[in-house]
Amino acid sequence: MGHLTYFKLTNQRAIIMEFLKDNINHPSVDDVYNYVVAKLPRTSKKTVYANLEFLAEKNIIKQIEVKGVKRYDPNIKEHYHLVCRSCHRIIDLLPTEINSKHKIDSVTMYGTCKNCLKRK
Amino acid sequence: MGHLTYFKLTNQRAIIMEFLKDNINHPSVDDVYNYVVAKLPRTSKKTVYANLEFLAEKNIIKQIEVKGVKRYDPNIKEHYHLVCRSCHRIIDLLPTEINSKHKIDSVTMYGTCKNCLKRK
DNA sequence: GTTAGTTAACAACAATTGTTATTTAAATCT
DNA sequence: AGATTTAAATAACAATTGTTGTTAACTAAC
User: Fold this and answer.
1) Dihedral sign computed on CA atoms, order B102, B108, B112, B118
2) D chain positions with any atom within 7 Å of a protein CB
């Protein structure tokens, strides 16, 4: 009876992690689900949600949100995302590339504001 | 019979615009709806959606999206938004303020990528 | 073998979009 | 000016989509 929390490497989880590894397409839950269900047909979508949330919480992947849809990125190094309104791709941008030739019309950042930082 | 499109200043639309004017709270559709329905009780939520979309399309307001929920900003001057994960406020940041004392963990930009710009 | 973590199979929810008949603001015609 | 016309806008739904909640059954690791 371990007192430390651990996590189990279930088949579903292994497949999800395999799919995400080196995936630069910022897949949605459905993208992941479609891949998993092809290999393990009885997988439920809730399981995929749970695993992606779990992995994001453990900082193994990053969760982003594009047009109300959650997407996941195995690249946890600092970088920005540009969502193209024309081709709908999600393009990774390094902080140094912020002044590239793309046309930006909206920037949303997530984090902790300085007021809340102070309060801790 | 006018050949140019025009737009009608309906009661609903006037109330919505009045609510948005100088509103710095980035209200959601529900925020707007609650205000409108208090003054015009039979207003449907679809009308609010339609008007906010209309105003955003005409560049009278800006639409942003936070955690899957649309929000609206009457300030159309260039500025960024910081969503605080702790106090949940949406804080306006001028481009010059980007290196302020907030802790940023995610940046998403919307726009048109350079490839799509070229193609036009 | 035991147990805590995980899963499947639902139901439920919240935000948004679709449909269509009715209403209305504004342009045009007296 | 007031009446007529018409395209835009609205109300009242239904429907859809992405997501979360519940619980009993299952399973990987101890």
Assistant:
1) positive
2) 6-14, 18-22, 27-30
CA closest to A82 among chain B residues:
B109
Per-residue pLDDT of B49-75, as tens digits, reads: 999 999 999 999 999 999 999 999 999
Strand locations in A1-119 (E): 62-66, 69-73, 80-84, 90-93, 103-112
- Verify whether the Cβ–Cβ distance A81 to B108 is below 8 Å: yes
Which tens digit of pLDDT belongs to each residue from A69-118?
999 999 999 999 999 999 999 999 998 887 789 999 999 999 999 999 99
Domain at A11-97: CATH architecture:
Orthogonal Bundle (1.10)
Domain boundaries, chain B: 11-97
Task: Name residue B118's amino acid.
Answer: K
